[in-house]
Design goal:
3-stranded parallel sheet; about 5% strand; binds tryptophanyl-5'AMP; mainly alpha; Tyrosyl-Transfer RNA Synthetase; two-stranded parallel sheet; 2 domains; Rossmann fold
């Protein structure tokens, strides 16, 4: 069972990333799983080169600290495997403009950024290339990637029907709880790396004090009844989902144990601190040794390239391109 997923180096890791994606990656890592730092994707929003460079390394350290083990799985940087961009182009000639303009994330981000670049529109095609290059069976992601994943499936099926069966059609999987963690201050808006909400975003590397403060100040409601109900009590439902995500219980079970918001918040803060402090500790230890990631990404790129090159060769030949081996190019 081949598993692939990726994350953008576009800012500090938050608990949405952790519970929605990374925790599942860590729990299910094997020699058949590949995880990718999607630096090409981060170029779609204008970013300072020095910031991107730093974000990539910070994210790699964060993923190792969270428990990804490069001895077990493959961890690599997208731009170091050139087939992503190459297959992306082939698939741009398979996807339609209408499919891309319908993507919710495109509409949201394009609305927020005047003069947005074409890459913001074609982004889901690159994402499809990421997934399809590795003949992926399963893609563990948070809820917000569901539409992109559907498109990857559509593109794979259309390609296979038109050019012959080259790609495995992937299935997206989401965690049972906390697949969509909301902002603690605005529980109707997703917690996000790219939106500035200092009190609403819980970062994986936040200090225990910051975690306790943010959870305590999280917006709830005034009726005082502890029930799990997204419709009428989104703030509390979000806290219960967070609790469930960290404790592997069901939100309803947790709600049944409490009669006061304050007690629930206190225990939730303690739980999050207990789960995140070891990650922060490992992060600080790894930060002291920058060469750790050099070896990891070199190894990861080598392993990823081997798989990607095979799929790319098959896809390009199926479309009618003339294959040239690297040896011919340099002769
Ligand atoms: P990104 O970098 O925005 O997020 C990385 C992962 O974290 C999940 N996530 C969340 N889960 C729950 N609650 C939240 N508030 C929350 N915010 C983010 C995301 O669902 C994701 O799983 N386009 C992708 C990166 C990507 C990718 C891929 C993913 C590029 N190529 C191929 C899968 C397969 C993205 O921007 O994720």
């Amino acid at each position: 069972m081949r598993v692939f997923s990726a994350i953008q180096p576009s800012g500090a890791l938050h608990v949405g990333n952790y519970l929605g994606a990374i925790k599942q990656w860590v729990d299910r890592q094997s020699s058949e799983s590949l995880y990718c730092v999607a630096d090409l994707h981060a170029l779609t929003l204008q970013v300072e080169p020095a910031d991107l460079r730093r974000n990539v390394d910070d994210l790699l350290i964060g993923l190792l600290a969270a428990g990804l083990d490069p001895e077990v799985c493959t961890l690599f940087v997208q731009s170091q495997v050139s087939y992503h961009a190459q297959l992306g182009w082939l698939l741009e000639c398979v996807a339609t403009h209408g499919e891309l303009t319908r993507m919710t994330q495109f509409k949201e981000k394009a609305g927020r950024h005047q003069g947005y670049r074409v890459g913001l529109l074609t982004y889901p095609v690159l994402m499809a290339a990421d997934i399809l290059l590795y003949q992926t069976d399963e893609v563990p992601v948070g809820d917000d990637q569901r539409q992109h994943l559907e498109l990857a499936r559509t593109i794979a099926e259309r390609f296979n029907n038109r050019f012959g069966s080259v790609f495995t059609v992937p299935v997206g999987t989401r965690p049972p709880t906390a697949a969509r963690v909301m902002d603690l201050q605005e529980p109707t808006r997703k917690m996000s790396k790219s939106i500035d909400s200092p009190l609403g975003t819980l970062y994986v590397l936040d200090s225990p004090d910051a975690i306790a403060r943010k959870v305590k100040k999280a917006v709830t409601d005034t009726d005082g009844d502890v029930r799990f109900d997204w419709e009428t009590k989104p703030g509390l439902a979000n806290l219960l989902e967070l609790f469930a995500g960290f404790s592997d219980e069901r939100p309803e079970e947790i709600a049944a144990r409490y009669s006061r918001y304050g007690d629930l918040k206190r225990d939730l803060a303690d739980l999050i601190i207990a789960r995140l402090s070891p990650i922060a500790e490992r992060y600080r230890a790894l930060q002291g040794d920058p060469h750790v990631i050099d070896d990891v990404v070199r190894d990861g790129a080598r392993k990823a390239n081997l798989i990607a090159q095979d799929t790319y060769a098959r896809a390009s030949a199926a479309m009618g391109l003339r294959l040239s081996s690297p040896a011919t190019l340099t002769a």
